[in-house]
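STRUCTURE:
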């Protein structure tokens, strides 16, 4: 009996500490945004799961599969069975690999005694291999000994190919998530540990996300809200440099419409990602240091076994188009997603994920 009470007590301490951090971060949010590092921790931004990508990343108010640990941890409160999701995607052939894994399950205890709660653990990994390092060759390239390697001197690398060292870039985010139903609302949080390494250099940071979910806010309309990196995430590098990931606010809506006459279900979703790190024209809309990206998506389910999806991710041009499909044979679900060349580098994204319930 005593061991069953330990988890709620520990969980309450964790959640209360996060909530206190939320209050503090709301006070210092805008002063810190001026010191933000653009694109710090960017490897996490596309989340996980082929289903979410196929819907343009409009998943804040959907939040009903294991990828919700990233998109909105509050969705864990409605999970009614154990589920494991594995995802893999590649870009530039196999030069850049990105993986996402998430395990979620309902639990028989709850912090605030509501009786309906869920937990999850997930990991995001991005790896880039064969990155050339030439720092150790600077003395050989600096033929005039002026302390700088000019463009002309850099051509000497052609004669030093065998001495170039190739290393890998490894970036990880490990997330521990918990959610609970409080009346009509679901509240969730994800504590995350971020580690990046490239060659002999590495960084470490700890942050937190907060999620809210209100199913059936009005008829079939669901509301979701994600406060990402709400405590502000600091990435401390071994070089002494510090990067800052500022908070982001992502509200979303989802409309679920059963089409019983055709044995189909229609899901329409949208979200607006708001950032404060001065991205300007790199994002879809901007005003001063604040920028916005819209995400919209649709899913059509046939007998809840075959799924077709389409969406727009951070824009309305053809390169922002996303699409996908899924097939479910219980307990297995396989999803595929395609995303256009939004970076204008002649490279599209293909993503596959597999999930199993048990």
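SEQUENCE:
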């Amino acid at each position: 009996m005593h061991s069953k009470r330990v988890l709620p007590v520990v969980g309450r301490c964790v959640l209360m500490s996060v909530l206190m951090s939320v209050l503090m971060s709301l006070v210092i949010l805008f002063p810190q945004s001026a010191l933000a590092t653009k694109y710090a921790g960017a490897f996490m931004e596309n989340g996980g799961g082929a289903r979410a990508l196929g819907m343009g990343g409009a998943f804040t108010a959907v939040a009903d599969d294991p990828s919700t640990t990233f998109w909105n941890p509050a969705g864990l409160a409605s999970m009614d069975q154990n589920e494991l999701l594995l995802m893999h995607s590649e870009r530039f052939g196999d030069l850049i690999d990105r993986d996402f894994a998430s395990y979620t399950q309902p639990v028989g205890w709850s912090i605030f005694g509501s009786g309906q709660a869920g937990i999850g653990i997930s990991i995001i990994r991005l790896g880039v291999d064969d990155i050339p390092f030439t720092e150790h060759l600077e003395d050989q390239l600096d033929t005039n000994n002026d302390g700088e390697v000019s463009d002309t001197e850099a051509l000497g690398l052609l004669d030093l190919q065998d001495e170039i060292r190739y290393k890998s870039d490894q970036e990880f985010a490990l997330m521990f998530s918990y959610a609970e139903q409080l009346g009509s609302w679901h509240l969730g949080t994800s504590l995350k540990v971020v580690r990046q390494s490239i060659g002999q250099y590495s960084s470490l940071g700890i942050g937190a996300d907060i999620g809210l979910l209100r199913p059936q806010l009005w008829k079939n309309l669901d509301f979701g809200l994600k406060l990402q990196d709400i405590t502000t995430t600091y990435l401390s590098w071994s070089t002494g440099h510090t990067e800052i990931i500022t908070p982001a606010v992502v509200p979303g809506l989802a409309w679920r419409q059963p089409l019983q006459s055709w044995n189909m279900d229609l899901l329409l979703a949208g979200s607006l990602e708001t950032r404060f790190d001065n991205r300007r024209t790199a994002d879809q809309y901007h005003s001063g240091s604040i920028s916005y990206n819209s995400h919209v998506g649709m899913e059509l389910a046939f007998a809840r076994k075959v799924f077709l999806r389409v969406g727009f991710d951070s824009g309305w041009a053809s390169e922002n188009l996303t699409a996908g499909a899924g097939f479910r044979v219980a307990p297995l679900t396989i999803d595929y997603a395609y995303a256009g060349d939004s970076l204008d580098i002649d490279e599209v994204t293909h993503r596959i994920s597999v999930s199993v319930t048990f």
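REMARK: Confidence is low (pLDDT under 50) at residues 1-35.
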